[in-house]
Design brief:
The complex is a heterodimer.
Chain A (H helix, E strand, L loop, with lengths): L1 H42 L19 H4 L5 H34 L5 H13 L2 H14 L6 H25 L3 H9 L4 H30 L2 H6 L6 H8 L6 H29 L1
Helix pairs in contact in A: 3-6, 3-8, 3-10, 4-6, 6-8, 7-8
Chain B lengths: L2 H33 L2 E4 L3 E4 L4 H42 L4 H9 L6 H12 L6 H6 L13 H25 L3 H9 L4 H29 L3 H7 L6 H10 L4 H26 L1 H9 L1
Antiparallel strand pairs in B: 1-2
Classes of the chains: A mainly alpha, B mainly alpha.
C-alpha cells in the first residue's frame, strides 16, 4: 500500500523534470550575470595598467598586491572602516541583545511603541536617516568625524540586532530559566549560564549583520563623516578620477574573507545538525 | 525575579537602545522637520519662520526628480520580481540537495560592498570596457551603441544591487509551500500552468509583497547608482538632496525634500499594503 502511494507521484514527476530544465539554465545564466562584475573586479586587481582608468586589460601582474598599502589614505580609510565596524558591532550587540531579550520575554508599557520605532528604523530610507542626523549636527553645530560615524552606525544597526535576538528569544522555552531559578541561580548567573547560551545563535547572527551593515554603509556615513574617510567613501571619491587597482585588491581580499567565513560557518552548522 | 527589581528589568534592558534611538533617530527626525521650515543661510544662521514655501518650492522645482525616482523605483522593482521569481522557483522546487549552494551562489556578489559592486557594474557598461569593448570591436554591437549615462544604466544598476531583497523573500515563501498541496492540484487534474497560477503563485504572493516593500524604498531613495551610472542627465531626488546639503548648504530646502521623500514613500507603501495587504493575498490563495 505504502509503496504504491510513494511510487506513483515519482513516476509522474520524471517527464516534468526534463521539461523544467530551461529554468535550471536560466538560474545558471542569472548567477553568471550576477557574478560577472565581481569576476571583473577580481581580474582587474591583477591588471598591469599604466593609465589612471583601470578598464583596459594590459597584462597580468601581482604588483598591486605587493603595493597594496602604497596609497596611505586608502589604507587609513580601510582601517577606519574596520575599526568603526568592530566598535559599532560591539556596542550594538550588547545593547541590542538586551533590547531583543526584553521585547521577546517581557510584557511592559511602551512595548508597542518600541516595536514601532524599531520597524521605522529598519524601513526608513537611508538618505533620510543621514539627512536627519546631519540636520541635528548642523543645528547644534557639532563637528562631524569618526565619532559621529560610529554613533550613526550603532543607531542604524540596533534595530536589526534587537529584531534578530527577539526572534530567537520568542522560540525559547521559559521553563528552562525557571528551572535554573528553582535551582538557586541568581539573575546574573541565570543570564550568563542559561539564557545567553540559548540565545547565542541569535546574538551571533545579529552581530554579523551589524558588522556587514557597518562596513558596507555608504549613504549614512557620507552624511555624518565630515573629513573622516571610510573605505566606501574613498571608492566613491575615486570614481570621478579613476579607481586605482588597489581598490580591486582590497575588495577581493574582503570578498575572500567574507566568503571563507560564510563557507566555514555553514559547514560547521551542517556538521552540528548531524 | 521578584519585586521592584523584577518589574524594572525590561525597562533597564530596553533603556540603552531606547535612549540611543531616541537621541540619534527620533530627535534628528524632529530637528529635520524643524529645519525644513526655517529660512536663512550658512553665514547668518537659520531661523525658524515656519516657511512652508520650502516644501512647495522644493516640490515644484524638483517635482520631475521625484517622479523619475518613483518611476525608476517602480521599473527596477518590477524587473527584480521578473528576474528573481523564476530562479527562486527553480531553486525552491527543483534545487534538491544543492538548494543552499545555489542560493549561496546567487548571493555571492553581495559579499562585495555596495559601492564597489556599482563601480564594477559601471566597468561592465563602459563603452571601451572589458565587456562592451571587445563586443564592439568584433562588430557584434553597432558603433553607436551606448548604455552608460542613460536611464537604462541606472535602472540596471539598481536592479543588480537590490536583487537579493527580492530573491530571498520570494524563495522563503516558495520553500514554505507544502509539496503535497501542489501534488493535490495535479491529482485533481490541474495542468502545470493551472497548478502554478491557482496554487503556487497565490501562495508565494506574500513573499513578492515583502520583496516589493524591501526593494522599492531603498531603490527609489538611492542616489549612488544615478551618480555613478547615470551621469548628469538622469539624477534622482537623492542626488538633489545630497547636492543641496553638501554643495549648496541649503539645509532647509534639503530637509524639506528629505521629509517629503519619506512622506511620499511611506504613504505609497501604506496604500500598497492596504490594497494588496497580506489579508487579501491570503484570500486570493483561498479562491
Amino acid at each position: 500500500m505504502t509503496t504504491t502511494l510513494t511510487k506513483a507521484p515519482q513516476r509522474r514527476r520524471a517527464p516534468r523534470r526534463r521539461r523544467i530544465s530551461g529554468l535550471h539554465a536560466y538560474t545558471l545564466v542569472l548567477i553568471a550575470w550576477l557574478i560577472l562584475p565581481i569576476a571583473i573586479m577580481i581580474l582587474f586587481g591583477f591588471n598591469d595598467t599604466h593609465s589612471k582608468q583601470n578598464f583596459r586589460w594590459e597584462g597580468f601582474t601581482l604588483k598591486w598586491y605587493v603595493h597594496l598599502f602604497d596609497k596611505g589614505d586608502l589604507t587609513t580609510a580601510v582601517v577606519n572602516s574596520l575599526t568603526i565596524a568592530l566598535l559599532s558591532t560591539a556596542i550594538t550587540t550588547v545593547i541590542g541583545t538586551f533590547a531583543g531579550l526584553a521585547l521577546g520575554r517581557y510584557r511592559f508599557r511602551g512595548k508597542g511603541s518600541t516595536n514601532l520605532v524599531l520597524f521605522m528604523a529598519i524601513s526608513c530610507p537611508e538618505i533620510v536617516m543621514g539627512a536627519s542626523l546631519l540636520s541635528m549636527f548642523v543645528t547644534f553645530n557639532l563637528p562631524r568625524g569618526y565619532l559621529t560615524i560610529l554613533v550613526a552606525h550603532v543607531m542604524f544597526s540596533i534595530a536589526f540586532v534587537a529584531v534578530t535576538v527577539r526572534a530567537r528569544v520568542v522560540g525559547l522555552d521559559p521553563a528552562v530559566e525557571e528551572a535554573a531559578q528553582d535551582l538557586g541561580a541568581g539573575p546574573w548567573a541565570r543570564f550568563r549560564l542559561v539564557t545567553l547560551p540559548m540565545i547565542m545563535p541569535g546574538v551571533v547572527a545579529g552581530a554579523l549583520l551589524a558588522f556587514v551593515l557597518s562596513i558596507d554603509d555608504f549613504v549614512i556615513t557620507n552624511f555624518t563623516s565630515g573629513a573622516t574617510v571610510t573605505f566606501p567613501l574613498w571608492i566613491y571619491g575615486s570614481t570621478r578620477t579613476g579607481t586605482p587597482p588597489q581598490v580591486n585588491v582590497m575588495g577581493t581580499l574582503i570578498f575572500a574573507v567574507g566568503v571563507l567565513i560564510a563557507v566555514v560557518s555553514a559547514r560547521r552548522s551542517v556538521r552540528a545538525a548531524r | 525575579m521578584t519585586g521592584v527589581r523584577g518589574r524594572l528589568a525590561p525597562y533597564l534592558m530596553i533603556l540603552p537602545s531606547g535612549l540611543w534611538l531616541a537621541a540619534f533617530f527620533l530627535v534628528p527626525m524632529v530637528l529635520m522637520v524643524s529645519l525644513s521650515l526655517q529660512t536663512g543661510n550658512l553665514i547668518d544662521g537659520f531661523r525658524q519662520t515656519l516657511h512652508w514655501q520650502n516644501y512647495t518650492d522644493g516640490l515644484s522645482t524638483y517635482g520631475d526628480k521625484f517622479v523619475r525616482s518613483l518611476w525608476y523605483g517602480l521599473v527596477a522593482t518590477v524587473a527584480c520580481i521578473v528576474i528573481a521569481y523564476p530562479a527562486a522557483y527553480w531553486i525552491a522546487f527543483r534545487g534538491g540537495r544543492s538548494k543552499s549552494t545555489y542560493l549561496f551562489l546567487l548571493l555571492l556578489p553581495y559579499f562585495v560592498s555596495f559601492i564597489l559592486r556599482t563601480v564594477s557594474w559601471k566597468l561592465v557598461l563602459t563603452d571601451n570596457g572589458p565587456i562592451l569593448g571587445p563586443l564592439r570591436d568584433h562588430g557584434i554591437l553597432p558603433d553607436g551603441f551606448h548604455v552608460l549615462d542613460t536611464g537604462v544604466a541606472v535602472v540596471s544598476g539598481l536592479t543588480y544591487n537590490f536583487l537579493p531583497f527580492m530573491v530571498l523573500p520570494i524563495y522563503v515563501a516558495l520553500e514554505r509551500i507544502d509539496p503535497r498541496v501542489v501534488e493535490a492540484a495535479y491529482d485533481l487534474y490541474a495542468s502545470r500552468l493551472q497548478a502554478f497560477l491557482r496554487v503556487i503563485l497565490p501562495l508565494s504572493l506574500p513573499g513578492v509583497f515583502a520583496g516589493v516593500i524591501m526593494t522599492f524604498v531603498p531603490v527609489s531613495s538611492d542616489y549612488v547608482n544615478a551618480e555613478v551610472l547615470g551621469g548628469p542627465q538622469n539624477t534622482m531626488i537623492g542626488n538633489i538632496i545630497q547636492t543641496e546639503y553638501f554643495n549648496n548648504s541649503a539645509y532647509p530646502t534639503a530637509s524639506a525634500l528629505s521629509f517629503a521623500l519619506m512622506a511620499i514613500l511611506l504613504v505609497g507603501i501604506f496604500a500598497y499594503a492596504r490594497t494588496l495587504g497580506t489579508q487579501d493575498v491570503l484570500e486570493a490563495a483561498r479562491r
